[in-house]
Amino acid sequence: MTNLAMAVLLLIASTVVSAGTNRQSPAPSFGGHWTLASISPERRDYDQFWFGTDATVEQTATTLKIIRNGPPPRREAAFTFGAEVRNDYVLAGGRRIIRDSRATLSRGTLLISTDTTGPDGQRWLSNILRWSMEPDGTLVVGDTEICGKGECPSVVTTLKFKRKL
User: Fold this and answer.
1) Range list of β-strands (E), the chain
2) Least C-beta-crowded within 10 Å: which of 83, 100, 132, 161?
3) Residue 77 is assigned to a structural domain of this protein
4) CA 147 to CA 126: how far, in whole Å?
5) For residue 153, what are the domain limits?
6) What's the CATH code of the domain at 62?
7) Measured between alpha carbons, how far is 115 from 135 in angstroms, rounded to an integer?
8) What are phi and psi for residue 5, nearest 5 degrees?
9) H-state helical runs in 105-160
10) How many domains does the chain contain in total?
């Protein structure tokens, strides 16, 4: 193959790649101060572990941090996209749990899958969060709580948050 033919092929390939890249929408920014606007279905005593009803989210190109501002207790969780990260918590009554999470940001959606290890040392997939943004700027978080080891049905709750200015 001649140098000219090779140059033409490289030019065509780079144009196709760049055209494909331009069609993809940029990853949404989930950063900001968020307050709970709605929850569906209504669930008695439900409390989203990291969000509560008021949370601050800090996001970079490779990390995400959630700070639960209210209601008490205040909690923080840090995540690195594409890696497993451990967050330790002491719950009411002094009970300690460990939450190992994997965060993936792809095509405008953030997925966080979490394994929980209780005081007895048993680890299980406890929940999967699916974040997305509606066109009006509403943050939608689908919280799928995995029940134990599959002996009961999982529960899906949809939370909608509005950005607090």
Assistant:
1) 32-40, 54-59, 63-70, 75-80, 84-90, 96-106, 109-117, 123-133, 139-145, 155-163
2) 83
3) yes
4) 7
5) 28-163
6) 2.40.128.20
7) 31
8) -65, -40
9) none
10) 1
Q: CA quadruple 137, 62, 99, 93: dihedral positive or negative?
A: negative
Note the pLDDT tens digit of each residue in 86-109.
Answer: 999 999 889 999 999 999 999 999
What average pLDDT does this structure show over 48-68?
A: 96
Say which DSSP state 92 is in. G
Please give the structure tokens belonging to residue 37.
Answer: 């606007």
Give me the torsion for CA of 118, 67, 69, 161, rounded to 10°.
-100
Q: Examine residue 18 and state whether it is found in any structural domain, yes or no.
A: no
Tokens of 137: 């700027």
How far apart CA 38 and CA 138 sit, in angstroms, is: 11
Beta partners for residue 158, in sequence order: 40, 142
* pTM summary value: 0.80
DSSP assignment, residue 71?
A: S
The verdict on residue 6 lying in a domain is no
Six token digits for residue 43 = 């669930």
Distance of CA 124 to the CA centre of its chain: 18
